[in-house]
């Protein structure tokens, strides 16, 4: 367990304590809950990677769970992890299975209320979503250019990873939006905190719109490249079929002269040469016929 002292300047005179737990054990969370009179079964759910975003109000504390974007595998794959935010009158507790860069960012404005600090964290998360989405869009454009030049399996796999990342982020953003709308109902209107929360909602909606746009573009690109690959495969198969048909012509001709019955030119000393020439002529005529047929098809198009 690690306790972070970020936002220390803002928290010094705020009258409450902020504790940030990074990948704590169950025993450490249980000890923290006992110390601050929190319900362990509720707080520990924030460490479940499949936990959905929500707002849960208990007798002596309120728990907020939101999804935060993270990157994996040298910034080639992006996903989200749940962040738990527990607040009481004198305590702000955050816990997550990973160390989040969102806590290393500066607060947008100075505020002394605990709700204000929570909304600052949520605002930073929304801004981080926008940043990751822009990175995904740039990488998608790079992969698209690479696929236009020389399609490689690695580029297609990277495109699929980006598509999967957008699916995770889009789902998490929608879940976070539900949490923000619930917080609006709980927050008093005409307060600085309410204005801060409105800013968070605006940024989160922008991130949702961006994820939809980038997702649609990425899906259309994947469909186009799948069609191109399928078309190239069809062209290769067609070429091989034509070659096999042309090669079959001399095989058929030679098979006639391989029968154990009297055949033309069997007594002629130039019989082999004559049969070879006949095979070449028939093969050439077959090739010319197939070529003319293809040219007519292209002219019709």
Describe the protein.
The chain has 301 residues and is of the alpha+beta class. The protein has 2 domains: 7-229, Beta Polymerase, domain 2, CATH 3.30.460.20; 233-299, Up-down Bundle (Methane Monooxygenase Hydroxylase, Chain G, domain 1), CATH 1.20.58. It has 7 helices and 5 strands, in the order H-E-H-H-E-E-E-E-H-H-H-H. It has helices at residues 8-11, 26-36, 40-43, 114-149, 153-186, 192-256, 271-300; strands spanning 17-22, 54-57, 62-72, 77-87, 91-96. A 5-stranded mixed beta sheet has the order 1-5-4-3-2. Strand 4 (77-87) and strand 5 form a beta hairpin. Helix 4 runs antiparallel to helix 5 and helix 4 (114-149) packs parallel to helix 6. The longest helix has 65 residues, at 192-256. The N and C termini lie far apart (69 Å). Residues 1-13 have low confidence and may be disordered.
